[in-house]
Amino acid sequence: MGGTFRTFLLQHSRTFIENACTLDGVLRIAMIGSLLTTKEKPKDIDILVTISEGVDINALAKLGRQLKGKCQTENAGADIFLCSEAGEYLGRTCGYKECHIRASCLGTQCHLGLRVCNDFEEVRLESDLIKNPVLVLWPSVEKWGEIPEDVEQVLLQ
Q1: Phi and psi at residue 138, to the nearest 5°
Q2: In percent, how much of the chain has pLDDT > 90?
Q3: Staple partner for 61: which of 38, 72, 115, 153, CB 3.0–4.6 Å?
Q4: Where are the chain's structural domains?
C-alpha cells in the first residue's frame, strides 16, 4: 500500500471525525469506500454521517469543505454522505459556501439554504451500506469486515 498518500487521507479523516462527533445531532460516523480497500491511491475519502433533525448542518458542511480542501492539495477529494436516524439517504454536504453560486452544483432542491446536496441522480447509497457500513468509527468502533492495517493504525488507535 502507498503509505504516505493513504496516511495523508486517513489523518485528515481522523481530524474530520474528531470535530464532527462534537456537533449536536451527529449520531454516527462511518467510513465507506475505497480507503477501506488496499488500493494504493484512492481518489477520495467517503464518510457516512447519521444525523438527527436538530443537527447544525451548516457546521457539518463547513467541516466537510475543510476536509475536501485539504484533500485537494494532493489531488484527492472527500464526500460526506448524510443519512437520517431511520436509515434514509439524505444526500451529501454541499461543497459550496453559498447556495447555487456555481453552475456545477448538482443539487436539485437544496434544503432551504442548508448545505445538503441532494443530487440523487448522481449518487444514491444502498440501504444495506447505510445500515451496515464496513467501519463505524463513532460513537463506538464496529467492523463488518477486514480493515487495511493502515486504517487500523491511524483511525482505531
Answers
A1: -155, 140
A2: 62
A3: 115
A4: 3-155
